[in-house]
Amino acid sequence: MNRRLLAVCILCPCLATAQDSLSTTSPVNSQGRLTDDTLHLNEVTVTGYATNRRLLETAASVGLLTARDLNRRFGTPTLVPAFNTLPGVRADERSPGSYRLSIRGSLIRSPFGVRNVKVYWNELPLTDAGGNTPLNALDVRSLGRVEVIKGPSGSLYGAGTGGTVLFGGLAVPAGRSSVEVSALGGSYGLYGNGLTLQTGKNNAAVSLSYNHLQSDGYRENSALVRDNISLVSSFNVSPKRTISMLGFYSDLYYQTPGGLTEAQFRANPRQARPGTRVTPGSVEQRAAIYQKLGYLGVSQEYRWNDRIQNTTVLYGSITDFANPFITNYERRADQGLGGRTITQVRFPNGPLPTTLTIGAEYQRNFTVTRNYGNRRGTADTLQTDDELRAQQSVVFLQTETTLPARLLLTAGLSRNELRYDFTRFSIRPVSPQRRTFDPVWLPRVALLRTFGPNVSVFASISTGYSGPTSLEVLSSTGQFNPTLEPERGVNYEVGVRGSALSSRLRFDVAAYQFQLRQTIVRRSADNGAEFFVNAGRTDQQGLEAQLSYDFVSPVSRSSSLFSLLRLWQNVNLTDYRFRNYQQGATDVSDKRVPGIAPTTLISGFDAELRLGFYAHLTYQFLNPFPLDEANTAQADPTRLLQATVGFRRTFASRWTLDLYASGDNLLNQTYSLGYDLNAFGGRYFNAAAPRNGVAGARLRVRW
Questions:
Q1: Beta-bridge partner residues of 496
Q2: Longest dimension (CA), the chain
Q3: Which InterPro entries does this entry report, sorted A to Z (predicted)?
Q4: 458 - beta bridge partners?
Q5: Residue 136: what are its φ and ψ, rounded to 5°?
Q6: What CA–CA distance (Å, rounded) separates 300 from 147?
Q7: Position 181 in a domain
Q8: Residue 251 falls within a domain, yes or no?
Q9: Do the strands 613-622 and 241-255 form a parallel or antiparallel pair, or are they unpaired?
Q10: Is residue 654 a contact partner of residue 628, using CB atoms and an 8 Å limit?
Q11: What are the E-state strand segments in 452-485?
């Protein structure tokens, strides 16, 4: 699949200028010459559905984050604030370094980590066979692009009810080499530095990055230290073949302060979870995460001719994980491997021009988990000794057909299979258990029509399926759950997008209804351990809108004082409710699904002067939402103001200096960035820092 045609989504809150070129895995064209991947603003391309069509011709809701959104809009190097600018997407950090992410859904499945969302880096799966994604192993400073497909996308990426995230790396300038060094410092002991080496010469593109980040944290027991090294490379070995590689290693340590009750949160939001007469607290047990992860993937793109091409990838990963917790000390070793192949055949000259995409994906994970007693941060007596094997496979097919009357029909189908094998070797061994889920077929169909060169409408019906993850069938209670059922649902969606006033006004509106059955939700025991149950049916309705206006037209940009002057507004309206669901003896039917704000408003203003000065302002508002299924506890309204100002200038055509300062929570609100939903004892709250800031510098030289 051709990954060179990447550009910037015209409906993204921050539209990149020509300086924000985007990286690909294949920066070498079919004639062997390196290409500069910077495209004009009217050449907007989406890669998520394999055919590299313009966003205007994509019959789906897609969000895009550019290099500006990830690395320049927000000074703090984390994915969370950038993700939260996209309607329908919500990310948080219950502890610094502990990411959670949902796309058009609730976090009721995710006490920690990323679940029900599939993540790829240029066709290389980052989500393992057990359905878990180590998002905290990535450093945002090594990313150049994020594309988010909202809703079920099983026609190309297999099972899932949440959505799909596609990552891309930093831009590699064609025909040049560069070195960039960076440093930052901020509130609560925040410090980081980075080094990036790149070369785009000799029919190759190589990017090597090292990034360090550390923080003392705002709360007790919330320090973080993270080191990341990544290598992304691509080589044109012949006019028809391109070999690419992704490798990264992450060494992450962060402390986990734990959830607070509302009374504790109001009295002292900085405290860690205190102990009781029954259980010790987070500080006493030295609760923390130690995670070392290595990943290596190789891909080959082969182009037989202008109509047929194939991309095949293979990867392997290894994880060393330790978690001293309130009640136990978990040690886990995980090995993963898998591959993916995708072939595309074009029939451009028939009466109905068609592109056929067919492929398959296979993954295996082998996990050894040992749980011990926790004696003040030291592993004590062995409690359980388990092995869990996860295996999943996907076969998929998609066709895109151009019909008369400016219609584009997309139809897809995938077959998904999942299996777990569990063996316990501890003091009370049990017979090996197997949980095999019946293979499921997931269809998707979408129809799009364009009206002139600037407006299109689309409608789609897609099916979703999400099997329990490995951390749900074997949760922190230490019990293997062979009865947990997969989630299944159907998504209906309509949308309109386009531009007006010489492309200065841009809009993207989508409405959807997702009917989900056997919804998986989290429960917690009194000691804090979690387990999972199926919660019957949920109805999820939503409206997403993006609107932006450029005060500087593309025609006058070269002569204006401003290279960018934009006002934008994103809106997310939801009504997610349980249907036919009993919580023990309590009927919670028609109650709101916890963790989803009925109204989310994200406003922004971006200004960039041709002299090099820039400023980005972002305001987010979330109205109260329930924290438990009975809707007895509510979150506070969230009002966040973030701003970044800076100066970026190129000197002597080789040196580029970028100085910036950023402020977060400028309204000094007391709020919880990440809530523990359905938490036992009402320990819902994880306090975020009050007003804080960060400043930094980047220096790059090219030759």
A1: 457, 509
A2: 77
A3: Beta-barrel_TonB, Beta-barrel_TonB_sf, Plug_dom, Plug_dom_sf, TonB-dep_rcpt-like
A4: 448, 495
A5: -75, -5
A6: 22
A7: yes
A8: yes
A9: unpaired
A10: no
A11: 455-466
- Give the pLDDT band of residue 170 (cuts 50, 70, 90): confident
pLDDT score of 77? 87
**Average pLDDT over every residue of 65-94:** 86
What is the pTM for the complete model shown? 0.89
Indicate the pairing of strand 613-622 with strand 308-324.
Answer: unpaired
Q: Which residue would you say has higher pLDDT here, 476 or 249?
A: 249
Q: Are 242 and 234 in contact (CB under 8 A)?
A: yes
> What's 105's domain CATH number?
2.40.170.20
In the chain, the number of structural domains is: 1
What is the predicted pLDDT for the residue at 365?
97
pLDDT digits (tens, 9 = 90+) for 567-582: 999 999 999 999 887 7
Q: pLDDT grade, residue 587 (50/70/90)?
A: confident
| Residues in contact with 352: Cβ distance below 8 Å, sequence separation at least 6, in sequence order | 401, 402, 403
Question: What is the phi/psi pair of residue 530, to 5°?
Answer: -110, 155
Kindly state the tokens that stand for 545.
């809108």
Query: Is 348 a member of any domain?
Result: yes
- Compute the average pLDDT of residues 102-110: 80
Rg of the chain over Cα atoms, rounded to whole angstroms, equals: 24
**How far does Cα 483 stand from its chain's mean position?**
29
Bridging pattern class, strands 224-236 and 204-215? antiparallel
Closest CA to 325 of 128, 475, 428: 475
- Per-residue pLDDT band for 6 (boundaries 50, 70, 90) equals very low
Question: Looking at per-residue confidence, does 45 or 169 come out higher?
Answer: 169
- For residues 584 and 334, the model is more confident at 334
Q: Are 649 and 659 a contacting pair, CB within 8 Å?
A: no
Burial of residue 619, with CB atoms counted within 10 A of its CB: 0-12 exposed, 13-18 middle, 19 or more buried: middle
Percent of the chain with pLDDT over 70: 90
What's the CA gap between 50 and 437, in Å, rounded?
28
Residue 142 lies in a domain: yes
Please state the φ and ψ torsions of residue 691, each to the nearest 5 degrees. Answer: -50, 130
Contact of 385 with 367, CB cutoff 8 Å: no
At residue 332, the pLDDT reads 95
**CA-CA distances (angstroms) from residue 47 to 54, 57, 70, 148?**
9, 12, 19, 10
Average pLDDT over the chain, rounded to an integer: 87
Measured in residues, the chain has a length of 703
Residue 412: both structure tokens together: 């897809």
Domain of residue 396: give its range. 45-702
Give the type of residue at 525.
Answer: A
Give the whole-angstrom CA distance, residue 37 versus residue 54. Answer: 15
